[in-house]
Amino acid sequence: MGKNIWIVNEHLTSPDLSENGHSRHFTLGLEFIKQGYDVSLITSSFSHNPKRKVRLFGLMRTIDGRIRTLVLKGFKHEKSSSIIRILNWILFVLLFFFAPFTRLPKPDIIILSSTPMLPVYNVLFFKWIYPKCKFIFETRDLWPLTPKSIGNYTDKSIFIKVLTHLERKCYAKADYIVSVLKNADQHIKEILGKQPFKFKWISNGIDLNGFSKKQKQHDWEALSQLPKDSIIVGYAGTIGNANAMEYIVQAFNENFKNSRYYLSILGEGAEKKSLQALANGNPNIIFFDAVQRDYLMSYYQICDVLYLSWRDVDLYKYGIAANKLFEYMFTKKPILMSCNIPENIVDESNCGVISAPENSDDIALKIRSMSQLTKEELVQLGRNGYTYLIERLTYEKLAKDYMEVFQALER
């Protein structure tokens, strides 16, 4: 029992599929294989986040790379709100019903990672075909809570009603629930009421082989030419509504124009143009286009403090697991995080400072307070984060946590 594992995630990536490289499930899969498990990945040919497209001649294809991967047809779309995205969900489910029997070994465990959640019906069908098969539901984002909190959807929306049904179905039918969000079990209790469930927090983390060993140098001329006494607050990642980046831009507009403090923003997203307009040519705010992950370490190293932020919504009381947080910690740089998140990793690891969310005045105050720390104090904050990461959040360690779930399902 527990030898053949299917991991279902329409948005996973791997070196076999894309130069975007490693992902959570590819990296976990490699660790499972080292321990004697047979692993199959099931995904769509198109993913909008991370952006990748696998060329298919037909409706499906099995790729026998480092991990066997079944790729099902998906259509390209530019926006996450596109109707094509919903059509891809439906197409994936329909193809998945027919694909595995001749292409994959019989599953002992199926891991379905959200979102989307519609393939729960595939999983329940396969559990009927293979009665001894166990179902692990992994939630990476709390849907429909996420679009309700930051996407302006209401409970009256048909889209939200469908997602609500699917969420409850996944929680209720799973033999075990895993989440990257530390406090997600509190939300699951709200959904299931008195129905018992088994839960384990298994965070995202750092893939030492996929990230740190492939870094290359890059010329960040706009930063390297700043005065030597400059303090650079750097951000790298998606620039979207959830990231609440307008508040740090406001902080720099109101407090740091023509000073030795600089804000560097690297990335793309729906809110980038509005942030550039808000910056209004402020010489202390520098924007960079997105680059390949191979160049990120050189960017992080030139910054003095690394920044990330979240909106002040109830969604985040269940936790966060942003990959850039773990990359930040790996750099041994101190972190400034703007949020209202209980039991967050920055606090627990003592690797930085927390500012109030959506509060430009407090962000400015915390930047000034960090700049007044000694070099040794800043270095120690960075080391704290790195040590915490290496001891607890490498994928080798996280895979062992997952295998404890596999063993519990055998009992």
Portion of residues in helices?
25-40%
| Largest sheet: number of strands, sense, barrel closure | 8 strands, mixed
Average per-residue pLDDT, rounded, comes to: 93
The CATH architecture assignment of the largest domain turns out to be 3-Layer(aba) Sandwich
End-to-end CA span = 10 Å
Query: What structural category arises from helix and sheet content?
Result: alpha/beta
Helices and strands in order:
Blueprint: E1 4-8, H1 24-34, E2 38-44, E3 46-48, E4 51-53, E5 60-64, E6 68-72, H2 83-98, H3 100-103, E7 109-114, H4 120-129, E8 134-139, H5 145-150, H6 158-173, E9 176-179, H7 184-192, E10 199-201, H8 221-224, E11 231-236, H9 246-255, E12 261-266, H10 272-279, E13 285-288, H11 296-302, E14 305-309, H12 323-330, E15 335-338, H13 345-349, E16 352-355, H14 360-371, H15 375-392, H16 395-410
Parallel strand pairs: 1-2, 1-7, 2-6, 7-8, 8-9, 9-10, 11-12, 11-14, 12-13, 14-15, 15-16
Antiparallel strand pairs: 3-4, 5-6
Helix pairs in contact: 1-16, 9-14, 12-15
